[in-house]
Write a structure and sequence with these properties.
Distance between the termini of chain A: 44 Å
Radius of gyration of chain B: 21 Å
CATH architecture of the largest domain in chain A: Beta Barrel
Number of strands of chain A: 10
CATH architecture of the largest domain in chain B: 2-Layer Sandwich
Strand order of the largest sheet of chain A: 3-10-8-5
Number of helices of chain B: 15
Distance between the termini of chain B: 47 Å
Largest interface: A-B, 15 and 16 residues
Radius of gyration of chain A: 20 Å
CATH superfamily of the largest domain in chain A: RNA polymerase II/Efflux pump adaptor protein, barrel-sandwich hybrid domain
Oligomer: heterodimer
CATH class of the largest domain in chain B: Alpha Beta
CATH class of the largest domain in chain A: Mainly Beta
CATH topology of the largest domain in chain B: D-amino Acid Aminotransferase, Chain A, domain 1
Number of domains of chain B: 3
Strand content of chain A: 25-35%
CATH superfamily of the largest domain in chain B: ATP-grasp fold, B domain
Structural class of chain A: mainly beta
Helix content of chain B: 25-40%
Order of helices and strands of chain A: HEEEEEEEEEE
């Protein structure tokens, strides 16, 4: 598909009028990635890394509470495990420093192990469920002091 | 109850509440698995425990058998009741539950699989001596044309993986058949993961009559009479009743005998419904399909037989032999159910999700209301639009109609558009009063 200057201006106008901060369109033979403001594109529009099947859309984090701590909710229902396997060291302890991609726990659904990343940078302030407990979708798992 | 102590309810809405109530009456504990959209639902509130199994879209919650089984295990349940819709006819849920030592309240996975394969079910019915409509599987355009010539136009093109009114197209002549076959095949493949098609004779004036069956784990099979569900729009039932009006005793016996014979032939277990099409012109009946779950319209059978069908499902799943024989099943009076839906009849029956500012159903002596809604309830946009089932049970059909009409007139509902006026028009219509109508009637006479 060939884009004229007019088309580009039209696309930019639509994005300006919306409250989107980023837009990505990928169809056969056409790829468009627009980012508003001074963000650098988060990834190249070309081949995206194949996502692990276990990664799921996360529930909206609860609004920051008055104590300024950030909550990590369970991205799915399942059994909560603090370590990769029995006997292994837990992924994190209270006081552990985490980055957004640090794995904080595993949630098992019918033998499928789903790794849960912290999502934000900070320090673990509280670990809420007990190991091997059933957690519901959206249930608070960790409280973090944001970095 | 022997083995079952705690039941996981894998459903939502009125049927989840219905199952919770039945379990409580049997002294069983309940756990309801709900989606984020149903957090404040009545079933979740009434159950001993409720767990959020996933986000609002059904594909990420109510249709995930892995989450359902995990949630049932994690909450210490020993049985799963799937209700209707969602995973109720999923052989995968039935087999996964069994692998994990859970009792699935329904037939074994193999029976569910056979029931879901409409073409195989048809063949099994024919083998059991149950009349089926002339028809056969068609693998190509040429085969379809030959089959249609043998059957005679018009013909129905049906998806083997369809059922419940889905995946059906009408071809009036060879040109129409040619035109729709490719589309029908790709739609069937996309919708059901199975692109097999078959042709069947089209019955112009048809009644939909179905037989409720119950089969225990020990080989006993009984029927609990029939229901007439001919008031339909686009194959979706609107009003159901028991007994079927104006059915001659020999026809009734032929239907119930056929249903029991078929259930025996396929090794059916637990409750099920064998659906028939009744040719209103000739009086002939033909097997349509079998549904391996509790039906939406089960209350009309409960009304006329005085039996709790959900409790019966649980007793059978628990391994108990049927506590009654065929001759103990007696029928009393006439029952009619109408489905109150959140939909805008004037605008193509568009669903009308929203918040109920007012919802009050009158209390009448001969009226039963199955609903999960109360004032302030939210009808989310993700699921079907059923708000309530109103069931009248009276000595005769006319009296039952009067009870429903009064209930609908006195019903207070504000906040969402409903099909209340449509239900009143149907129940007040002369054709309906006279007795049986055919499945094309509603769209012809009213809508």
């Amino acid at each position: 598909m060939a884009l004229s200057d007019e088309d580009v201006r039209e696309i930019l106008r639509i994005i300006d009028e919306s409250d989107l901060s980023e837009l990505r369109i990928d169809t056969e033979g056409f790829s468009l990635h627009v980012v508003r403001g001074d963000h650098a594109p988060s990834a190249e529009p070309a081949p995206r890394p194949r996502q692990a099947p276990a990664v799921t859309r996360e529930p909206e984090p609860e609004s920051p509470s008055t104590d300024g701590l950030h909550t990590i909710p369970a991205p799915m229902l399942g059994t909560f495990y603090r370590a990769e396997a029995p006997g292994k060291a837990p992924f994190v302890e209270v006081g552990s420093r985490v980055e957004p991609d640090t794995i904080v726990c595993i949630i098992e659904v019918m033998k499928m192990m789903n790794s849960v990343p912290a999502g934000v940078a900070g320090t673990v302030a509280e670990i809420l469920p007990d190991n091997a407990e059933l957690v519901e979708y959206g249930q608070p798992l960790f409280r973090l002091q944001p970095a | 109850m022997n083995r079952i102590k705690r039941v996981f309810v894998a459903n939502r809405g009125e049927i989840a509440l219905r199952i919770v109530t039945a379990c409580q009456e049997l002294g069983l504990e309940t756990v309801v698995g709900f989606s984020e959209a149903d957090r404040d639902g009545l079933a979740a509130r009434r159950a001993d425990r409720a767990v959020c199994i996933g986000p609002a879209p059904a594909a990420q919650s109510y249709l995930r058998e892995d989450l359902v089984v995990q949630a049932a295990l994690g909450t210490g349940c020993d049985a799963i009741h799937p209700g209707y819709g969602f995973l109720s006819e999923s052989p995968k849920l039935a087999s996964r539950a069994r692998e994990q030592g859970l009792t699935f309240v329904g037939p074994p996975a193999e029976v569910i699989e056979l029931s879901g394969d409409k073409l195989r079910a048809r063949e099994e019915a024919a083998r059991a001596g149950v009349p089926v409509l002339p028809g056969r599987e068609v693998a190509s355009g040429a085969q379809a044309r030959r089959a249609a010539e043998d059957i005679g136009f018009p013909v129905l093109v049906k998806a083997a993986g369809g059922g419940g009114g889905r995946g059906i197209k009408l071809a009036r002549d060879a040109d129409e058949l040619d035109a729709l076959l490719t589309l029908a095949r790709s739609e069937a493949g996309a919708a059901f993961g199975d692109d097999r098609l078959y042709l069947e004779r089209f019955v112009a004036f048809a009644r939909h009559v179905e037989v409720q069956i119950a089969a225990d784990e020990h080989g006993a099979v009984v029927h609990l009479g029939e229901r007439d569900c001919s008031v339909q729009r686009r194959y979706q039932k609107v009003i159901e009743e028991a007994p079927a009006p104006g059915l001659e005793p020999p026809t009734r016996n032929a239907l119930t005998d056929a249903a029991v014979a078929f259930a025996r032939a396929i090794g059916y277990r637990n409750l099920g419904t064998v659906e028939f099409v009744l040719d209103a012109d000739t009086g002939e009946h033909f097997f349509l399909e079998v549904n391996s779950r509790i039906q939406v319209e089960h209350p009309v059978t409960e009304a006329v037989t005085g039996r709790d069908l959900v409790a019966l499902q649980l007793h059978i799943a628990d391994g108990e032999p049927l506590a009654f024989a065929q001759e103990d099943v007696v029928f009393d009076g006439h029952a009619i159910e109408c489905r109150l839906n959140a939909e805008d009849v004037a605008h193509g029956f568009m669903p009308t999700p929203g918040t109920l500012s007012l919802f009050s159903v009158p209390e009448l002596l001969q009226l039963r209301v199955d609903t999960h809604l109360c004032p302030g309830s939210v009808i989310p946009p993700y699921y079907d639009s059923l708000m309530a089932k109103l069931i009248a049970h009276a000595e005769g059909r006319g009296a039952a109609i009067d009870v429903l009409l009064q209930a609908l007139e006195d019903l207070d509902v504000e906040g969402v558009e409903t099909n209340r006026m449509l239900l009143i028009s149907i129940l007040g219509h002369d054709d309906f009063h006279r007795g049986a109508v055919t499945t094309d009637w509603l769209e012809r006479a009213i809508v």
